[in-house]
TrEMBL record:
Domain spans labelled Response regulatory: 14-126
UniProt key word DNA repair: no
InterPro entries per UniProt: Bact_response_regulator, CheY-like_superfamily, Sig_transdc_resp-reg_receiver
Protein name: Response regulatory domain-containing protein
Gene Ontology BP annotations: phosphorelay signal transduction system
Gene3D superfamilies for this protein: 3.40.50.2300
Record's keyword terms, sorted: Phosphoprotein
UniProt lineage: Bacteria, Pseudomonadati, Pseudomonadota, Alphaproteobacteria, Hyphomicrobiales
Regions annotated as coiled coil: none
4-aspartylphosphate carried by residues: 64
Annotated PROSITE patterns: RESPONSE_REGULATORY
Organism per entry: Rhodoplanes elegans
Amino acid sequence: MAMSIGASRSRPPRILLVEDEVLISMMIEDAMVEQGFEVYVATNAGDALQVLEEGTPVDVLFTDINIEGEVDGTRLARMARELRPDLAVLYASGTLKGISDPVPGSTFVPKPYAPKDVCAMLATLAPQ
């Protein structure tokens, strides 16, 4: 289905949430679903990359920087951009003030964050 210029969004934004802390993941996933987002959840980089490699349609990667495993959120974003050059990226961290080497055009939100604020940010990052 083609969208005309100025048409409203025909589908909800699709978010790949990568968060290894279960309670945080559940809280933000619930908020995103309430806001109409389509959410895919991964707890580590390997699972997130599998979602992307399978061709799952995703508009925004929302990843914690400090995730379990050999690949952190910063490296995950780089790998994700190799697979999907147009993928929007939103980083989160409770221990960093920012990212030393973020992917171009990415955004950062410090933890703790208000889920409604993150949803508002994600809505601006997702293609219209």
